[in-house]
Write a structure and sequence with these properties.
Blueprint lengths: L7 H4 L3 H12 L9 E5 L7 H7 L4 E6 L2 H9 L4 E3 L11 E7 L8 H11 L5 E7 L5 H10 L19 H9 L4 E14 L3 H7 L4 H6 L2 H18 L7 E14 L2
Parallel strand pairs: 1-2, 1-4, 2-3, 4-5
Antiparallel strand pairs: 5-7, 6-7
Helix pairs in contact: 6-10
Main location: cytoplasm
Protein name: Trans-aconitate 2-methyltransferase
GO molecular function: trans-aconitate 2-methyltransferase activity
């Protein structure tokens, strides 16, 4: 998985907006009394407790590859463990797996999905959500700036095709024999602040840029990027900014 660093505090700056897809995803899981529930890529653990509350009788495993995120989750009382998604395999009694906004960081995740579903017991639920906005200005403008002479070669970001389209996920998951439900949603987030979209992506899409550049260079990069994002996502007269965010969901139940 990616070796760049995470800032749990920065990530939680838009906690309410980032939590909405998780709620929508988990609502589609029909498990009633699972034996083991896995939060695969639990982040700072702010949503893991919702899984524990829904299935209090289950053994709950919270896993993340980031030491910073695992530490933040433990501070919340979540018994999180550090593990790389690429190396993970479900235990035989795993009845629910939730992976929320994680797999977009794993280029090989389409190869992992059939392997995981094949290892799950009959009737298990697998639920995933990934951003589907890599072609949006919030990402395209970053790539454009990185292609300019000053920044060229400093870091390589994921392209527009970083995740499959919904129909591709549907074919991939249904090919395992599972009963599959795939959909997409574009959330229109109402943000506040001078540079809210820049602040949003600073915790996610700009993470590799931050890690690749010296502190002064990263500050200069953000300064060049800010007006481009403001133009793409203009502030409304009331001081708020609309930020469309497309997400892709898939829920599969093994046969």
């Amino acid at each position: 998985m990616t070796s760049t660093s995470w800032d749990p505090t920065l990530y939680l700056g838009f906690d309410d907006h980032r939590a909405r897809p998780f709620h929508d995803l988990v609502a589609r899981i029909g498990a009633t009394a699972p034996r083991r529930v896995v939060d695969l890529g639990c982040g700072p653990g702010n949503l893991t407790g919702l899984l524990a509350a829904r299935w209090p009788g289950a053994e709950l495993n919270a896993l993340d590859s980031s030491a910073e995120m695992v530490a933040a989750a433990r501070e919340r009382g979540v018994d999180a463990q550090r593990a790389d998604v690429v190396d993970w395999m479900p235990a035989p009694d795993t009845d629910v797996v939730v992976t929320n906004a994680v797999l977009q960081w794993i280029p090989t995740h389409p190869e992992l999905l059939p392997r995981w579903l094949g290892a799950l017991p009959r009737g298990a639920w697998f639920a995933m959500q990934v951003p589907g906005n890599f072609g949006a200005p919030s990402h395209a403008l970053v790539r454009e700036l990185l292609a300019e002479p000053r920044w060229r070669g400093s870091v390589e970001l994921r392209g527009e095709k970083s995740v499959p389209e919904p129909d591709e996920y549907a074919e991939l998951l249904s090919g395992t024999g599972a009963d599959v439900d795939v959909w997409e949603t574009t959330y229109l987030h109402r943000l506040t602040g001078t540079d809210p979209v820049l602040d949003w992506i600073s915790a996610t899409a700009l993470r590799p840029v931050r890690d690749a550049l010296a502190a002064d260079d990263y500050a200069a990069f953000r300064e060049e990027l800010a007006p481009r994002l403001r133009a793409a996502y203009p502030q409304r007269p009331d001081g708020t900014t609309w930020f469309p965010f497309r997400r892709i969901f898939a829920v599969a139940r093994t046969a």
